[in-house]
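Researcher: Re-running this chain for the archive, since the previous output was lost when a drive failed. Same request as before.
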Amino acid sequence: MYLIELLRNWPCTVNGNWRDVVIRKVTEHPARAEAGSLFVARKGASYDGHHAINEAITNGADAVVIDRPVSSAMISAWSAAGTAVITVPDSSRFLSFCAAELAGNPSHDLKVIAVTGTNGKTTVTHFIGQLLGGMGVPAAVIGTTGCYIGGERLDIDIPPLTTLTAEYLHPLLSECRARGVTHAALEASSIGLEKGRLTDCGIDIGILLNIGADHFEDHGGRSGYIAAKKLLCSLSDQMIVNEEDAVCMEMTACCEVPVHRFSRDRFLDQSIDGDTAARLPAGLHNRLNAMAAASAVRLLGFPAEAISRSLGSLTLPPGRLQLAEQYSRKVYIDYAHSPDALEAVLKAVTGLNPRKLVCVFGCGGNRDREKRPLMGKIAEQYCDHVIVTADNPRDEDPAVIAQHILAGVEKPHRFTVELDRRKAIRQAVSMSEPDDIVIIAGKGHEAVQIVNQDRFSLSDYSEAVAALDAIRSHTRT
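Model: Regenerated structure tokens:
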């Protein structure tokens, strides 16, 4: 697309040669800049794209976008290098618009369902994909675990974000469209909504699952977090809301688009019977997740009876109550990393009547400190023994994080601290006996652990399998 076409209806000032410039790609990452690309110098929380303009131009960018004053000397230097310099009111907003335009606005050709909530986004989007697949509909699922079409994960280079930035999202939707996809289920995180990543994505149905304690610090507190989640209401043509969550109901009370409700026993106009409920994945939280997904598919026009029949075949995505089992010992790996999610998972496995329940978990560093003692208290309530370990400590001392968790417990003798996550997992599995259940919570499908700025390979599932194998070897000996 000619640059002049991109700028046609956009308030801006332009310096340098721009009339004959053809743009094939937009990016905010200077390393991805190349000939035919437009570099958007966006300012983030810890990164300022203005500092990378020279790098982007060196890499071949034909145009750069800024939204703050720079010296006339710098603009002259960039223009002299043959680069068009465009000043707009808001770089982030322009990036979103430009990415959608260059990709051909693929969301306009798809039925898009966006799912938000503190917990359950990944599960609900995968459930939607499975239900649509059962109806013969080619559907994509995009979120925390990657991009799936027809249940198969695409081998595609996208960042590991819950909600992709516009730079990646719209080209991915275009790729899905080219592969015959007609429906897409997306995860909408609070950060993604607040940062405008979905602003230029047409959303047919928005789903509001629940509001719990997570990511408050990213939004300046609970009210900011709720306000970010509520943005989905203004982006969607219709909303589906969990009527069992009072905060969600309040958030949609003045919604300007149609609002539909679901509960543990009903998806829109269809109630489920006991047999159907018994065939759903374990836990009340997954029952609600299933009803949310069924509501979306029903709202798309598919028969309630066909949806009800398909509910019993739903399977959880990777890292959600994922089971490793040997020698009558069950180890469940789950992504639960908030108080509500941890309690939901522990309730679910308690319902399986374990002889003893052991939990391994930690809390991530550099965020949400107030949830740490709450999670310690919840683990104490449900578990016979808890091993506190490192999650993704990032720049924080994991020993300090562990102490924050322990501050919420009243029976510390039931807790052990082992900050090496591999050792913690093996310790929990080795101390288990037949008919016990071990829960490893917090990282789920993730295959890395983040310590300071480094990423180390670590899979909870693989470590659990290895620990179970060690028990087998010991038994044989």
